[in-house]
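Notes continue from the previous slide.

Worked example: a multi-chain complex. Inputs as given:
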Amino acid sequence: MEFVQFHPTGMVWPPSVKGILVTESVRGDGGVLRNSDGKRFMFEYIPDVFKDKYADNEDEADRWYTDQGNNRRPPELLPRDEVARAINSEVKAGRGSPHGGVFLDVSSRLPAEEIIRRLPSMHHQFKELADVDITKEPMEVGPTCHYVMGGVEVEPDTAASSVAGLFACGEVAGGMHGSNRLGGNSLSDLLVFGRRAGAGACAYVDSQADKAPVIAESDVDAASRRAVAVFEGGEAGAQENPYSVHTQLQQTMNDLVGIIRRGGEVEQALVALEELKGRARNIVVEGHRQFNPGWHLALDLRNMLLVSECVAKAALLRTESRGGHTREDHPGMDADWRKQLLVCAVNTAGDGVDVNSKDQIPLRPDLMGLFEYSELAKYFTPGELADIPAKES
Ligand SMILES: Cc1cc2nc3c(=O)[nH]c(=O)nc-3n(C[C@H](O)[C@H](O)[C@H](O)COP(=O)(O)OP(=O)(O)OC[C@H]3O[C@@H](n4cnc5c(N)ncnc54)[C@H](O)[C@@H]3O)c2cc1C
């Protein structure tokens, strides 16, 4: 659950649209990222492993748009997490835009009619939602939470979870994308594992034909009592509003368990989460049961708090940086951590999360052999590489 992917470019202003995605095509079509000094800062953030593939100067980067064969790619097109971390660093260094992002500039790079032709939806989105004309001025963008690599542990061939009769596929399931999903791979995941989950559920139902599971009435009563308890009111003076608990939860996770994590900050987040759990027990909802978003949020908050605790506890335990998990106090990848999964489960009291380490099942050698050896050499120790068969062709 510690592996959370941030997309580098979401809208940062106005607050009502914060987080809405700004497509990668803006950068693919020539848009560049600048800080408050007007500097195209991504050249400062090219990691060593990518130095041979990305241009280290503006002239070469700009030539790439018309001649991809003879020039290296602009660093604005580095992997998502690299760009997200770079933006985060610029903002933290005080070189951000007025609303806490950086500038994504396409207006000085392409003629207005070309921008409208190539990026019609972005032109429309910024005009309608932020009153910004992207043919005349830069956009303000910043990293936004995009995808959770972790999720429900499932059996890969049937998508069966450890709860009998419960199947999970898609983003809610975990494990498919390792520590960092590649662009486009969610949709292929949905197609492949959606089918497997459907087939797995059908086979399960057939196998259970004459022994349908029995649900205890007491469990149903307890669930419904818990669901409506928020209408009854907590202790006098301690009544909480679900929206303020939700906002505080978002802010805590954003500030303390965000793109770049530090052990001390994650510990602070865990203290804050305990306080928020206490406040959530005193939530009071007004109104009726018919379409009541405050009630729905109150019901969801219990799960949001548990998921946040999973992310924070696993992020604190994983003392390395890998994929979507970056620890400033543990910046490198650690070969021992590669072999470990952190498995979260609700504790026996039902009010918190336990995290246990489990051995990662190694990738099958024949599948490992499909990767380019030179690429693997960047991520594995020589001892580990010796176990990997070389690619045949
Ligand atoms: C802006 C954006 C752009 C993306 N672009 C791409 C891309 O180009 N290519 C790619 O591969 N991936 C992309 N992704 C990722 C991909 O879209 C998602 O991972 C994928 O859509 C998840 O599908 P899903 O069916 O697993 O979950 P969802 O699409 O999230 O579906 C879950 C559904 O469950 C419903 N639900 C939730 N709780 C309850 C409840 N208690 N009761 C009943 N229903 C409930 C929700 O309302 C929702 O409809 C993008 C993601 C984002 C945010």
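Summary box: The chain has three domains: 4-145, 149-211, 215-361. The mean pLDDT is 92.
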